Amino acid sequence: MMANRIGRLEFVFWCGAPIVAGSIVLDIVAAAVGAPNVPTVGAPLHGLFAIVVLAASIVILKAEVSRLHDLGWPGWTVLLAFIPLVSIVVFLLLFLAPGQKTNNPYGVPPMFLQRFRKLA
Fold it and tell me: What does the pLDDT average to over 79-99?
């Protein structure tokens, strides 16, 4: 599970992983049911599609809050991402702005894949 603060690289991972995993689940289920692999597969997969989208949205929302904590901002700032056009600026900020290098009220600075960086 994600920490209270995550860096840019980990943010990219937590935004992409649920989308990829959800797509794989939907493809496997669609193949098992015999439905064509298109977004308009019909009523049987609409419920599963809604569950996958909801799960991916929750994971991405948690990643956004953790990334805002890394910047030193409160988590409720994520509500700015729901305002049209402002959301573009918020996402660019989350992807491009470096986090705080020192401890802040949300924890210590993150180190994504720390064990693997020691080996390199």
Answer: 91
